[in-house]
Structure prediction request, 209 residues.
Amino acid sequence: MNRPVRVVLDVNILVGNIMAHDRGRRGTATQTLVSMVAGQTWGLTWGMGGRAQLVISLDMIETLETVLRRLQFADDKIKAYSGSLIDIMHYGPDALDPYLVLGGEERFAMPDAEDAGVLATAIAAKADLLVTDNLRDFATKDAAIIDTQVIETTASGQRTLQALRYRIGGADLIVAHPFDIMHWMRLGYDFTPEILWNALRTHGSGSVR
Prediction:
């Protein structure tokens, strides 16, 4: 990709990042992705040398702060974290401001209005990637779906990961789990949505719907 990869990190990814740091963990997939986006780089460890632009909405920031308060993080730490995310977006290669999405969520038949808002943000910003651990709720009738890999974790046991693709208007968006994103980086995939999707169809599990 010869332009910055526009990346939406779902609220569960942002929460997972700060919780991992709080627990003294290092090098998780979530932490690595947040670190790359914060540094405006994409896949640099694997010689890709790309650039990244964070995309986030004001509603997502509000949800993040609410979740962190519920988890009993100190208010000054919460404000510092959310403020840093806004700065990362604003000072990224595309110099974007946090999106205020007025409507759009209603077009997606999703069980959670906040998830619908995240998807609407990604579509409005013409993001390339939406990274989430909550794939099931993002799989609507408007998404093309491909099985990617089977993983096993201590928290959830064995599960099959999927990638989703939304093509709405001028937007072309891939929704994926952080484990898949990291795997595709190691394989050296191009993250242009059309090119990435074709690679997944060729090298994925072969189950497409």
